[in-house]
Amino acid sequence: MSSTTGDLAPGHEHDHHASYLTATKGVASWLFTLDHKRIGVMYLVAILTFFLIGGLAALGVRAELFTPEPDLFTGSQYNRWFTVHGAVMVFLVLVPSIPASLGNFFLPLMLGQKDVAFPRLNLLSFHIYILGALFLIYTLISGGVETGWTFYTPYSSTTDSSVISALMGAFTLGFSSILTGINFIVTIHKMRAPGMTWRKMPLFLWGTYATSLIQVLATPVIAVTLFLLMFERTFHIGIFDPALGGDPVLFQHFFWFYSHPVVYVMILPAFGVISETVSIHSRKHIFGYMAIAASSVAIAFIGFLVWGHHMFVSGQSELSGTIFSLITFGVAVPTAIKVFSWVGTMYGGAIRLNSVMLYTLAFLFIFTIGGLTGLFLAVLAVDVHMHDTYFVVAHFHYVMMGGTLMGFIAGIHHWWPKMTGKMYNEKLAKFGCLVVFTGFNLTFFTQFVMGARGMPRRYHEYLPEFQLWHQLSTIGAFTLAAGLFITLGYLLLSLKNGEKASKNPWGAKSLEWETESPPIEHNFVGQVVCDHGPYDFDEIDYSRG
Amino acid sequence: MLSHNENEAEAAGGHEHPAWQAHHFYSGAQQKASVKLGMWAFLVQEVLFFSGLFMAYFAFRYLYPDTWLAAHELLDWRLGGLNTVVLLFSSLTMALAVRACQLDDMKAVVRYLWITIGCAGIFMVVKYFEYSHKFHAGTLPGKWYTFDGIEGGAPEVFFAVYFMMTGVHGLHVVIGIGIMLWMIFGPIRKGKISKDYYPLVENVGLYWHLVDLIWIFLFPLLYLVR
What we know:
Number of domains of chain B: 1
CATH topology of chain A: Cytochrome C Oxidase, Chain A
Order of helices and strands of chain A: HHHHHHHHHHHHHHHHEHHE
Largest interface: A-B, 56 and 46 residues
Oligomer: heterodimer
CATH superfamily of chain A: Cytochrome c oxidase-like, subunit I domain
Strand content of chain A: under 5%
CATH class of chain A: Mainly Alpha
CATH architecture of chain A: Up-down Bundle
CATH superfamily of chain B: Cytochrome c oxidase, subunit III, four-helix bundle
Number of helices of chain A: 18
């Protein structure tokens, strides 16, 4: 080595074994880092910030709905509020949520690697995410959009609000998502520690892998759709606008060809998180490893064939409606296999009823309701009645918020000691989980009831007979918000005065727990070899069985 | 950057690896395989990006078959055919550039890349003449359509599809030119490409072949409607 290297050696040697948080200093060392862990943390902070913005918009919407009359907003203002809520939550929170934050942080660690395959691409995806977020923030400042997050034509190609910047935002964010997907696919295929076969991969990685496939295969379709819509709006070229010979239903086909698979981009990583937490906190080998792994990929595949179930009343043929309905039922099969496997994992396990497990149980309870009500909506005749009612709103909040975000929060609690090196206050965590769970169900279960009774979505005034349900729902929303603020509070407090976390506080077996908490800059000292499965726990008390 | 890599090698137990190998890979072979798989994944998303345009084409052709037949007469199949030949030839020179890498003949690599860039330039010039002709004739998308002489509904939709498909493809050609120029003045000039490590050239080649391939589908669909 050169003499320069020799001069640097002592300081450099020190950096090598320092925690990734302190290895280098300064804002630039974060913003331009190639370290997947720092990129993961920056994603986490950004996503949670936008979660706050999207959540405040939701509270605005719920506050308006406290009484049947318009109190706070005009119809047009109300439209803008729920569009902010929907667009921010979908594009800035749910799609990147688990893969971009926890996935970025833990994928290389779980594989026993120093980094993802393309660290620079990884940083680029974060910068593109921020750029996309700036477009959406500009949209907000310049007055917002009235179209809803779905941008349905012809309203989106004719209405005069900041549609173009919103479209630019969603379009840009898509590329961030695609780059993350490519990076993860290559990393999982080509960079597993010696001894780590596909069957020895933690299930979180299977979930992330299935997600990445969808990100790469579906996102470009929404990209070209939004691209066409931008041209349509700017130059009036007539692809989707019927006044110019275009076809608005074509837009819906394109839109849902992406936007249905993307709900699996949101939920599959949460499935992955739950597969980890349910096994580790039951201290028992996961039940049906291959069934869970394969069902993730199966869901990703079937997810591409069901987009028409969003369009049962859009004038598609009865035949295609029937086919889409049938395939939609098919999604329930691999999903149920997962739920049964998780319950089977807990059976006879040594369950640790900590906050991670509480969030896992909350996930199982809420997601099962969300999944089953999805089957109601897959029935053609029922959907005609339920379409565009609060029943649909409640359904997708039970899967998106109750599924993805409960899984996300479970994952944050599970991996918090590893990411920060600190333990949080477990008592407050349990209390927070209880408040979140109560608030969530109060907010959205009431919406099932009023939806089934005919309350349509996206209206800022309503008939007085729905008032009780709306008020319960609004109280629930503020309870939920309180629970989330409690959670944020003790997590932030733990950074300051939390107990120091050990290497492996949960007694887990996967590789990320074999390095320090927080991990050193290059993850591991020397080369990691994988000589056991991720769920090979040795202290199982079979006598309880 | 280089000294950083050397530090890594030292920290990892002093084992030597070539300068082009990034520290987080076990071996050069693993890095090459990863870089190529990444490119293939990227090409998959490119195909799906274009799939939206192709689906729009088929949806509207199904809705307006007579318009499609009448409107395609306004495209000059000779110019389209010329561009097809030019692009096919450029794919050959691109493949020869990759072969020159394998033979470690960097001068030939640069020469073949310049020929490929030249072909791409010819393609864009021909496209320019085609486009300007349409701007004169008024065979334009949507509300800009002023041409009078096609029977049947919605000829402006044909031209919306035509301009979006060829426009997005043309954008890819221009990006390809940019990437090839960057290859010549960046990695090749800096000596980062050699017989031992040339996945970057291969990836540019893969991209260029895809751009060519998409045109192979666009040409008959737009110019040779029956």
